[in-house]
Design goal:
84 residues, alpha+beta, 3 helices, 38% helix, globular
């Protein structure tokens, strides 16, 4: 479920190999996921590892999950928490 005006941390996970991408957003989560999918479908995502996995396994094995809602001031710290 997506909340329309929320800040937070999300994960895009490949369900085949378990690898994941962590990101933060100041826009709604549905729009952010849509932008990722558009870039991946066009073969121009800024993360080459995610793009290679998308190309190899296909769109259907990726899952977008909201990990945490937070304030704008907390975004960097919380994203780093999940990256660590």
């Amino acid at each position: 479920m997506f909340i329309s005006k929320a800040f937070g941390i999300y994960r895009i996970r490949c369900q085949v190999n378990g690898h994941f991408y962590i990101g933060s957003t100041i826009e709604n989560f549905a729009n952010r996921w849509s932008k990722h999918r558009t870039d991946l479908r066009r073969g121009r995502h800024q993360n080459p590892r995610l793009q290679r996995a998308w190309n190899k396994y296909g769109e259907n094995v990726f899952k977008f999950s909201v990990l945490e809602y937070c304030t704008v001031d907390q975004l960097n710290e919380r994203e780093q928490h999940y990256l660590n």
